[in-house]
């Protein structure tokens, strides 16, 4: 690990490994969203109703994977299928009130967990880390040609 990129590669691998333990599910009241539901609901929440085709383009996943994930979200009452508000033929998925509640609860629990991890950091360190992480993600998105909407 003689180059900074080697250290970044290793640390991002560890970040993926730590995620389930850092965001402690045991502390949450009620159920939790799995990672795919959380990510899909976040995107639909930002963009509004989306079709399987739009989700496939946004995530780079095949339709069968998304059909499985959205079917689970439909059964859980997190999304509903609606006609395309713009008049297209494809039906779209819209987040439900329950989906919005679950997404907000999950996000709040994630933020509380992050605040515990970052408790000993200065506000300036937290802001600098957030800026670097955003830049890292937007550069990945730029190279992949798949920008992610931000609030």
UniProtKB/TrEMBL annotation:
InterPro entries per the UniProt record, alphabetical: ArsR-like_HTH, HTH-type_Bedaq_tolerance, HTH_MarR-typ, WH-like_DNA-bd_sf, WH_DNA-bd_sf
Top-level division of the source organism's lineage: Bacteria
Matching SUPFAM superfamilies: Winged helix' DNA-binding domain (SSF46785)
HTH marR-type domain boundaries: 1-138
Pfam families: MarR (PF01047)
SMART domains: HTH_MARR
Protein name per Swiss-Prot or TrEMBL: MarR family transcriptional regulator
């Amino acid at each position: 690990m003689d180059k900074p990129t080697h250290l970044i590669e290793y640390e991002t691998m560890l970040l993926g490994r730590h995620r389930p333990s850092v965001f402690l599910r045991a502390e949450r009241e009620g159920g939790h969203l799995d990672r795919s539901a959380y990510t899909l609901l976040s995107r639909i929440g930002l963009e509004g109703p989306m079709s399987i085709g739009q989700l496939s383009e946004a995530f780079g996943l095949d339709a069968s994977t998304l059909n499985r994930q959205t079917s689970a979200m439909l059964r859980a009452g997190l999304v509903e299928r609606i006609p395309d508000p713009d008049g297209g033929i494809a039906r779209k998925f819209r987040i439900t009130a329950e989906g919005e509640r679950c997404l907000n609860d999950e996000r709040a629990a994630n933020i509380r967990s992050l605040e515990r991890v970052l408790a000993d950091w200065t506000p300036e360190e937290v802001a600098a880390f957030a800026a670097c992480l955003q830049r890292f993600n937007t550069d990945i998105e730029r190279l992949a040609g798949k920008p992610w909407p931000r609030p």
